[in-house]
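Protocol step 4 of 6: structure prediction from sequence.
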Amino acid sequence: MALSQLSNGIGVLCGNDSEIERIIGSRKKETEALLERFLKEIELFNSAYSLVGTNDPEEIVIRHILDSLAPLGIISGLLNEETAQIADAGSGAGFPGIPLAIAMPQHKFALIERMGRRAGFLYNTCAILAEGGITNISIEENEFEKTERDHFSLVTFRAFKGMDAKLLKALLNACKNTGVIAAYKGRLETIKKEMLPLEKKGVKWEAIPYNVPFLEEERHLLVIRK
């Protein structure tokens, strides 16, 4: 059931967003196969490593894999380079970095994770995905605050922590001069409350809504430009 839900979800995303269709439409079967391998690794190691908060494969597909891919068209539009350097801050189980890297193999992704067990999972998973042709992912076992400065075209994160001045500074430091932060968030009302202290300091932001197949919840991509 979970695999058919994954296939149907990708079909919905392609059908509802012409940019997503452009990006993965011709590679749909290949993309699905790689995401299935990723899902199997999560199912295998989740109990031991506490990768995600559920053992239900359908919930993993909807709340993690499809949620990671749902704003793909928006993220693609934020990139103005044929080969961009993208960071996934606090990558954890590889969300959203691994699904995005599978969908956009022309870009290079750095998954930054400070916890050794989860970094180990990422190393193992990326080695398996490399057998399927996905070689655009690197792993950095480190605190995000210590990552390379002025390097990334886009920094994304999901289920990491609330935005505050300290985190924003670290994210912006990692971005190039034209870099962008793209944070996966929920309700607009919550985002407004979270961003109000930073807004008072002159930080400009926008929250772009996106829809996740089979998920009846409000989702937004919080975008902040350097």
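Step 5 (inspection) to follow. The chain has a mean pLDDT of 95.
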